[in-house]
Amino acid sequence: MTMWGSKNDHPEDGDQAAEEDHSGRPSSRRSHERQEPDERTRLIERPRAPNSDGYLDPDDPAVSPYNLWSVRFLRYFTVLFLMISFIWWVLLLVSIFISPPKMHSRGSGFFDFAFTCLTIGNLLVAVIFFVAPAKALRITTSIISVLLLVDVILILAVPRLRLEEGWVGIASVVWAFFIAVWCILTDRVVAWGKREEEERLTGRPETRRTVKEWLAVMVATIFATIFIIITLLMTLTLGVRSRDATLGMFGERILVDGDKYAVHLACVGNVSYTHGSKDATVILEAGETPSEYDFEHWAYNAYQNGTIARYCYWDRPGYAWSDNAPSPHSSGMSADALSEALAKAGEEGPWILVSAGTGSIVSRIFSSRHLKQVTGIMLIDPMHEDLLHRIGSPGRGFMLWAYGIISPLGLERLAGALFKGRSREDRVYGRNAYQGGKFIKAQLQENLVADSLSKNEVVSARNIQSSDTPLVIVSSGIHCRTDSEWERKQKDLTTLTENLISWDVVNKAPHQVWRTYDGRSVMEKRLGSLVKRAGKTKTPI
């Protein structure tokens, strides 16, 4: 009788048959025994279900692009870049309030902070949705990278932008561009790794997506679209800044404070002499707006009318054509910057100081440090040191900071340029100057130290001020009527010296007294009286 041989009768043949699949290839177990351990070894050792064809279920969590070392390294580096960007973000945040050594930006510092925020946003999306690669995300990130490349070109190509942003701003935008490109490459490699592992472990690439995956792709794409809008607005704002940089200025920019930043100084008229003595030059100190915005126009009219022979005006740090100073920056530091700029420009006293609003704080400190050269002081609705808490309030500081953070988007500036016909003059020193990042930074700097350092400086200046210096005060009638405390403090300022020429309250004039005809008339009349009085005490040559 012929007997069928059992599997045990021919163990070698049985083992060989069991270890070969239908295609004649060695099974996964024999293949595993012969290959060197690698990154996928733990998956090959995974037990297979009985009668399995050797492939995993597509929904098995072991089917993951993380099985590839290349994908794991990409994630490690992405997390590392996120940590580096966060540290840089913290430094930039601190530098808005206190400038670290060698990190001072002559611009506002808000653009480099915005670029770093965008960088962190891109990295967070890449890390959170790392295993959900999508073509839509690569396309949107590619658009971001192109816009960032345009930003890099604008900043490097326009000298004024390159100067204001400095190495900090350039490094921030270049880093943002690099990270955008990195996120594109990372998403592409993860998509490749996902397909490779699906083919190897399931036998085919997976074309389905779970609801969770679709949701992840949708959320990531929405965030990337928002980043596109943000980057586009920043690019347009840089374009507007490039356009504004072509606006010519009268006067010159002078480096001060160890050449850390430059301030704008301009003088009108020639040096004149009377009876062998040099006539006083009027120094204008604007209030809450740049000098060029109608305050200087009043002085020019007085010059044309012969009331004054010569005047100089300047922009405090962050105003108009002047750079931002390192933080913190007090009124006394502004007074020192003015002194240095005048000295470098070859300007010498005697001087008559004409200032308005918060600028009067700077003028009073300047006067106390140049007692022999200052022969007259004219204050126009001036700020009193006891009211500095109003501009130094924490709430106002927070609003200025928040406004500065969103200023790179240029929402108001772009709307003004596109729909309201705002000109370069409006944006640089005119009615829309308050929308610029530099101006906002300057206001924030004033806010941070107004009720502390600046107040201490002006109080000391009052104690030092010469008692015989001629003094004129012109106050806003509207402001005095609506604010009784302001009126009391205006009266107190009349005692700054013992040589008060006049105190005028212009009935219908606003805080910017020179914006009304009556205000301009009174100011010019009193300035003429101050010039005559100062002429009696001219400094000999």
TrEMBL record:
Bias kind Basic and acidic residues: ranges: 7-24, 33-48
The segment annotated Disordered runs over: 1-57
InterPro entries reported in the protein's UniProt record: AB_hydrolase_fold, DUF2417
Which SUPFAM superfamilies does the UniProt entry name for this protein? alpha/beta-Hydrolases
Q: Where are the transmembrane segments?
A: 76-98, 110-132, 139-161, 167-185, 214-240
Keyword list (alphabetical) reads: Membrane, Transmembrane, Transmembrane helix
Among Pfam families, the record links this protein to: DUF2417
- Protein name, as recorded: Mitochondrial integral membrane protein-like protein
Q: Which organism does this sequence originate in?
A: Melanomma pulvis-pyrius CBS 109.77
